Amino acid sequence: MDHTKFHDICVTAAKVLHTDASENDCQCSLTIDGIDVLIELDEEADAMHCYVDLGDANSHERMDVCEQLLALNLRTHSNHHGSYAFEPSSGRAIFCANLLDAANLDGDELAKMLRYYVEETEEARQIVNGTAMKSLGELFHPELA
For a tag site, which of 22, 59, 89, 121 has the least CB within 10 Å? Predict the structure, then answer.
């Protein structure tokens, strides 16, 4: 995928999502329902990398937030093929996903995927903001060991 097609797809996705796209050197920023989303073009891999901002965890709760996001990674990784992480330079919690074979995507499909990622990360945003329930369940039970 080249820069022109990337630009066109981002503009179309923004229109479908009723928002504006801000593009800068193979990156496109959107705000969907108040949530910041960044899309990066990786021309070599013919992929797009999507990052959904989850918020800024309070420093005194960061370890607890990390633990809960790791548990959420375990529980949801097969659903959306993405993962939860912290962006190194800002320290903000993010959800990241790779959209492979980007040349076959169109703006409508990208909009659907971005909407899906924003909706699927609601629980993670609640964790980061301290409003989620603490228990995410157990995968291994002591009585089974």
Answer: 89
